[in-house]
Amino acid sequence: MPARARDEDGTLRVAGGRVLNVTAVASSFEEAQAKSREAAEAIQFDGKVFRRDIGWREAARLTSRV
Q1: CA–CA separation, 12 vs 19, rounded Å?
Q2: Of 47 and 4, more confident
Q3: What is the pLDDT of residues 12-62, one digit of tens each?
Q4: How many domains is the chain built from?
Q5: What domain range includes position 52?
Q6: 22: left (phi over 0), alpha (psi -120 to 50) or beta
Q7: How many Å apart are CA 36 and CA 20, to the nearest integer?
Q8: How far apart, in Å, are the Cα atoms of 5 and each of 14, 17, 31, 57?
Q9: Quick check: 20 and 43 in contact, CB under 8 A?
Q10: Across the strands, what pairs with 34?
Q11: What distances in angstroms separate CA 24 from CA 14, 33, 38, one per listed residue?
């Protein structure tokens, strides 16, 4: 169960904050980043907010190597 979450009569209730991590494994950073974002977008609950800038340091590092 995610942090700051509780089971309320069979329904998962979250109390805010960072309650869930989504990761993905792929053959490239870009593919893993896209897969994790797709998975995060597929998860739905009221008040959901998620960061879209995760991985920006690695993306910048990879870009600067080209």
Answers
A1: 11
A2: 47
A3: 887 777 667 888 999 999 899 999 999 989 988 888 888 878 788 888 888
A4: 1
A5: 5-64
A6: beta
A7: 12
A8: 4, 10, 30, 30
A9: yes
A10: none
A11: 23, 7, 10
Alpha-carbon gap, residue 16 to 13, rounded angstroms: 9
Q: How far apart are CA 5 and CA 25, in angstroms?
A: 26
Q: For residue 58, which phi and psi values (nearest 5 degrees)?
A: -65, -40
Q: What is the DSSP string of the chain?
A: --TTEEEETTEEEE-SSS--------SSHHHHHHHHHHHHHH---TT----S-TTHHHHHHHHHT-
